Amino acid sequence: MNIFVDRMIRAAKLDVNLYEEVEADKSALGQAMAVVIISSIAAGLGSISQVGLGGIFMGTIMALVGWYIWAYLTYLIGTKLLPEPQTRADQGELLRTIGFSSSPGLIRVLGIIPGIGGLLFFVASIWMLVAMVIAVRQALDYSGTLRAVGVCAIGWIIQVILMGILFSFMGAPEM
């Protein structure tokens, strides 16, 4: 099996060793970015009846921007605000691990099946959040999960505010 596909499957299975592997593999940044793009396209296809083709493109761009912002915030919060004594990480490690935590989002493509889109998007969101907590815990070398949950929650709140500001400058889409 292709290494990239194998890594995505392992990430979706919440394989702790996968997150350690991509944290250490500096060449995996392109793969992590591809996971974010593929996951975003899957979400766009799964909601195409609501977002149309233009929504897929904008959704992919916003997912990439959001991925970078959240990874950077996670890096700052996790290494400066809430580090443990053994915490050693760089931005690339967070970009790679968080990128792969988007792997469960591929199931969102099944949102094209009438009547299950909302449920699938909810399940994918929870699954991706759990994957991200594991990714953050591994990348920041935390001894427990609670601190990783806190870092993800703080980063998410700040990201939502920043994305809201960005959207307000772009203007609301016309219906």
Provide a descriptive summary of the structure in words.
Helix content is 74%, strand content 0%. The chain is mainly α and 175 residues long. It has one domain (3-168). Helix 2 (16-24) runs antiparallel to helix 5. The longest helix has 34 residues, at 48-81. The radius of gyration is 16 Å and the shape is globular.
Work out the helicity level.
over 70%
Q: Give the mean pLDDT.
A: 89
Low-confidence stretches: none
| Distance, first to last CA | 44 Å
**Strand element count:** 0
Biggest sheet statistics: none
Strand content: under 5%
Structural domains: how many: 1
Number of helices: 7
Q: Which value, in Å, is the CA radius of gyration? A: 16 Å
Shape estimate: globular
Structural class category: mainly alpha
Q: Report the order of strands and helices.
A: HHHHHHH
